[in-house]
Amino acid sequence: MASPKPKVQRKAFYNASLHLRHKLVSVHLSRDLRDKLGIRSLPVVVGDRVMIMKGDHKGKTGKVAEVDLKGLWVKVEGITRKKADGTEVLVKFRPWNLLILDLNLKDKWRRRIIERRGGRVEALQTQQQGAQQEGGK
């Protein structure tokens, strides 16, 4: 039973187990992907191309470099900041501030999720196979 108290909601959020946290890193799909697949969102994985929707880096795109389920952070390649000692580190983003532009479908597990939700994964597979053939020529 869900409690209406914010205190209880926060506690449940911070103490959630990893298999539940995986759902919390779900990210909305772009309009094109949503139309092709027939689903609204998916958990983000390393290799997805995402766009930042909020904050100082709004509008920038890049591939996901790391997904931290423990802290609920996503790091995107190419988006860095300088620390006080001058070293550059990847900026951390919350998943709900991102938008998936391109999926990493190398994992069978991910394809099964799309199929289980009633999505049309074949449309993307044929598109990606065509892009690979063009790149190989």
Summarize the structure.
This protein has 137 residues and is of the alpha+beta class. The protein has helices at 6-14, 18-24, 31-37, 108-116, 121-136, and strands at 26-29, 41-43, 49-52, 61-68, 73-82, 88-93, 98-102. The model has no long low-confidence stretch (mean pLDDT 89).
Description:
With 137 residues, the protein is α+β, with helices and mostly antiparallel strands. It has five helices and seven strands, in the order ααβαββββββαα. It has helices at 6-14, 18-24, 31-37, 108-116, 121-136; strands spanning 26-29, 41-43, 49-52, 61-68, 73-82, 88-93, 98-102. Strands 2-1-7-3-4-5-6 form a seven-stranded mixed sheet. The protein starts with 5 loop residues before the first helix and ends with a helix. The model has no long low-confidence stretch (mean pLDDT 89).
Task: For this entry, give a set of tags.
single chain, 137 residues, alpha+beta, seven-stranded mixed sheet, 5 helices, 35% helix, 29% strand
Strand content: 25-35%
Structural class: alpha+beta
Largest sheet: spatial strand order:
2-1-7-3-4-5-6
- In total, the number of strands is 7
- Termini separation: 57 Å
- Number of distinct helices: 5
Shape: globular
Biggest sheet, in brief?
Answer: 7 strands, mixed
The low-confidence runs, each spanning 5 or more residues with pLDDT under 50, are none
Note the run of SSEs as H and E. HHEHEEEEEEHH
